[in-house]
TrEMBL record, chain A:
Function, as annotated: Catalyzes the condensation of ATP and 5-phosphoribose 1-diphosphate to form N'-(5'-phosphoribosyl)-ATP (PR-ATP). Has a crucial role in the pathway because the rate of histidine biosynthesis seems to be controlled primarily by regulation of HisG enzymatic activity.
PROSITE patterns per record: ATP_P_PHORIBOSYLTR
Protein name as catalogued: ATP phosphoribosyltransferase
Gene Ontology MF, one: ATP phosphoribosyltransferase activity
Family annotation (Pfam families): HisG
Gene that produces this protein: hisG
Subcellular location: Cytoplasm
This protein's domain notes: Lacks the C-terminal regulatory region which is replaced by HisZ.
Annotated NCBIfam families: hisG
Reaction catalyzed: 1-(5-phospho-beta-D-ribosyl)-ATP + diphosphate = 5-phospho-alpha-D-ribose 1-diphosphate + ATP
Amino acid sequence: MAQELTVAMPKGRIFQDAAKLLRQAGIQLPADFENSRKLIISAENCSMKFILAKPVDVPTYVEYGGADIGIAGKDVLMEAESDVYEVLDLGISACHLAVAGLPDAAKRSSAYKVATKYPKTAARYFREQGEQVEVITLNGSIELAPLIGLADCIVDIVSTGRTLKENGLVEKEKISDITSRLIVNPVSYRLKKADIDQLIGKLTEVVKENLNGMDQKSGVEVLK
Amino acid sequence: MFEKPLGMRDTLPALYRCKQRIKNILNDEIGKWGYDFMATPALEYEETIGKVSAIVDHHLFRLLDKEGRTVVLRPDMTAPIARVAASSLKEQPLPLRLAYTAALFRTQQFEGGRPAEFEQTGVELIGDATAHADAEVIALMVSLLKMSGLKNVKVVIGHTGFVNAFLADIADSADDESALRWFLYKKNDVGFREHVYSLNMTDENKQRLFMFIDSRREHNENTLAKIKTLLPSSHGRVIYQYLSQLYLLLENHGVSGCIDLDLTLVSHLDYYTGVVFQGYGGSKGFAISSGGRYDELLAKFNRPLPATGFGLRLDRLIEALGNCQGNDSINKTVVIYSEANQEKAFKYAEELRKQGQSVVLQAQAGLEDAEAFVKHFSSAVDFSL
């Protein structure tokens, strides 16, 4: 590859799956890639540089050109509405966005309150249902909100459902399926087209292989 | 600090010099291609310009004039120039080659302040429907980007007419068509593919749509060839011939090396009818320039004429050029004088100015800290003794 590509990687939940996918695509990541505490990691033999960012910040790094490419969950992309190319569904880290609450919660009233990390997405969802709700933005432990009466329900991502169950909450409505996506800065896409297209091509192949090898019953854990 | 309205920015001297230098380069080059510069007012009636301009409604700055009529700060220059071409310049022989450098105004909803006022340089070629006109404005745009010192110049070319005809040929309903176009506009390939899967249509048509969205990754020759496969109708053949001719013209203009044909390109301005293009360069940032053919706009001013052109955003060009402000420091001499020597000092300064130098005349009596003041000059002459 001629020009160096900067890739924004989300720390946390998606990171392991994403690193595995990149390795499958033949990108030689450093051995300590998953365990390093560095924020910038170079993979010189494939002229790529990885920046390790908070997942919600990945679209921002990519939109403003801090990174050419990024890997981000669809949940984050729906919320950020960044001007980036969403080129490929990587099929990893599958989960879904859902409305959840206490099992015996009252019917929706006019003062219905929704706690979430995704205020725009939640507001859009309820608006599309023709309902007016008050959206309360929290940054973590969303499950707390209905337990202490801060909100009537929550909008959050659900992967196994264990957190909900342990806190006595139940899923009420599914909003949408979530997987991780490959996103590309519109300018980088034009200026480093050959390199980026090559990477998209490789990843497309890997995603296809993973889909084919996937157990039909448990469509979720694609790579495990 | 004293706050400014959202999205409004000051241009400090260093940036101003940089901008001025770039503007001179661009305007000289546009002049050499024979385009005439002109200006229009910043305020226009909403019903004439606001309605035909392609900038979405909520981006318009609206005000009321003294009679209570709604006026807008011009959000683009294409519509005002079309208004002039259809009225004051009606008697001029066609085609018209017009150019402008002007501040445009678009409100910003996002905080963090992307500019709501920005300068744009552009050209409009009115009255020539051929690919030659499109090739000329694209070649001029490439020339401007290169002359500004920008590295890595790339121009992406698409065709609104093709996208419209192709989607209309495949989709069953206008709703499906606009949904697919929305995903293109949002740059959401994943959403586009998912939507295609969900549509009720033949597998053959689905394959055509996938081939279309994947065509972005093809080389120009292959992309051109794909047009005939994707849209085998006579309309498709016309567009194929047009784009082939345009590509050949661009080769002969010597700019095909930085051209990337992308059939999936959709512009945010909806008055485009044919070819659309965007200019990129530098290493990061945003699209610097954009343009295209708009054959239906002039008709809204009762003078149906084909037209093509582009606008180039100076703020984005300067950002893409990197820190150009350092290169634009100027050589200035300061002459510090005392009351007794003032006549001598004035004569000396006049002499230097005649030679073309910038000279600051500063009375010693007006200085508090002479040492600090003098540091900003390339040379200092002391007439205070």
